[in-house]
Automatic annotation (TrEMBL):
UniProt keyword Cell inner membrane, yes or no: no
This protein's UniProt keywords: Membrane, Transmembrane, Transmembrane helix
Protein name (record): Rho termination factor, N-terminal domain
UniProt domain Rho termination factor-like N-terminal: residue ranges: 246-280
Region annotation (Disordered) ranges: 214-237
Organism of this sequence: Mesomycoplasma neurolyticum
Amino acid sequence: MIFNNLFNNQKDFETVLKLWEKEPKKFRIWIIMQSIAIALYSIIYITTFILLIVSIAMNKNAPEENRLSNINFTIFFFFPLLVLSLYSHFKNLRLSYIKRNFMYLSGAALSFFSFISVGFLIFQAIVLMVHRDVFFAALSFQNNIVFSWFMVLYIILTIFGISTFFIHQAVRNIKKQFIIADQNEKINQFNELLKTQKPDFENFFENIFSEQKNQPKNQTNDKKNKSPESGINEEREKETLKYQKLNKLTLEQLRKIAKDLEISGYQTLTRDELIKIILKISD
């Protein structure tokens, strides 16, 4: 079958159960390192944000509107993403250990922390390189001490974020292995189902088309099989049914029907005569 040809090589892949057997020796260290990195990264990031907010608030030289906009941007944009990513990571990590399958690791959290580990931090590093005078002045600890400590933590955060990028990539690769294993298990199950059932699609469609072709033939044969005698019998049965229905009616009801049918002299006709005339007119 065509499905067998497509999926025969799927048996070469490792199953989810075999992959999970590698968890203590091969995968656990990366999962623990990622969780620690995310926790430390979040602590440093939150501390950096607090110092940044305090530094902006203490900068009296900056306009009030600019300071408030910077604080609002920091609080209402990055904090929700950070909190949601933390929640998503640890929730899905727990689910992965319950189901013994790392395909349930949060892809959104992985993407978010990978992004802020490299993309955002490299961008900020470029900005700092452009404003080297501000950078070195902050590290001198002469003017704004809070801002100086903010810069120190920011440097640590940048270095730490780039290093954790490789941890996130390793965990992403682990998740990918489990996704491939799970998909191949489902494909193999489907393949085995096809083997056991062995559906004959050609005969299936031939049977459908043959039934459709035979339907008009059967209808014509039924019409041909009807003899004149059967037609006469059917008419007699219909007349008998009509007569039985009319015979159940009272004389007044029969005269009312005759009146509706505009039968002249219906008032002088007997009951049997009315029934015969009504039957003739209805035919």
